Amino acid sequence: YAITSGALSTAFTVGQYLAGAALALFTLIYFLYGGRSMWRFLLGAVPHPVRDRVDIAGQRSFASLVGFIRATALVAVVDAIGIGIGLVAVGAPLVVPLAALTFLAAFIPVVGAVVSGVVAVLVVLVTNGPVPALIVLAVVIGVQQLEGNVMQPLLMGRAVELNGVAVVLAVAVGSVVAGIAGALLGVPMLAVLNAGIRALVSGNLEPDEDSGAAGSAFPPADVPVDPVPGPTGKPSDP
Length: 238
What we know:
Blueprint: H1 2-44, H2 48-89, H3 95-105, H4 111-128, H5 130-160, H6 164-202
Helix pairs in contact: 2-3, 2-5, 2-6, 3-4, 4-5
């Protein structure tokens, strides 16, 4: 009975994760395919006097999110490659899993790099001894210095324009509220809110080319909604 109950519980948990992954994939495809029409529909509910400002705020928020993801992915790749090379150099085991952990942890600003580095050093200390562990520690510190002093200011600062204290607080609050998912989503959500609120209060209705908003997937506010075909194939009245 205990074995059957455990198997059913495991199958139920796996089914939940698979269903969640399928739902997330479906939602992603739907947003990518129909994102523009959805944005036009939402803009239609905004009062006309402020519609242009809300449109620009949405463009800049979206551009900030895209910039954050691109910059973080690039930083994560550099971290994973650098630490992976250090692990290979000392003959450490589990190089691919540790490099993958480093890549994923880089999406949690500040905390992720420290945690993944500590895990890598501890694994090498247990399996290879203190000298290789010190070498890996030096590699981790070097990679993190490159990330913190060169890549983060150059890429992340331009993408999200957030203060360092705000980033740390976003990670802390997100982790307390929603665990690992909150730590992952705290900074991008703050970046989106920051860009949107700045656009709303600035009064500047020109797309910000520096932030990439000019190439946003959002259309201008005055673009009409595509007519919906009627039963005869002709556009029906809204």
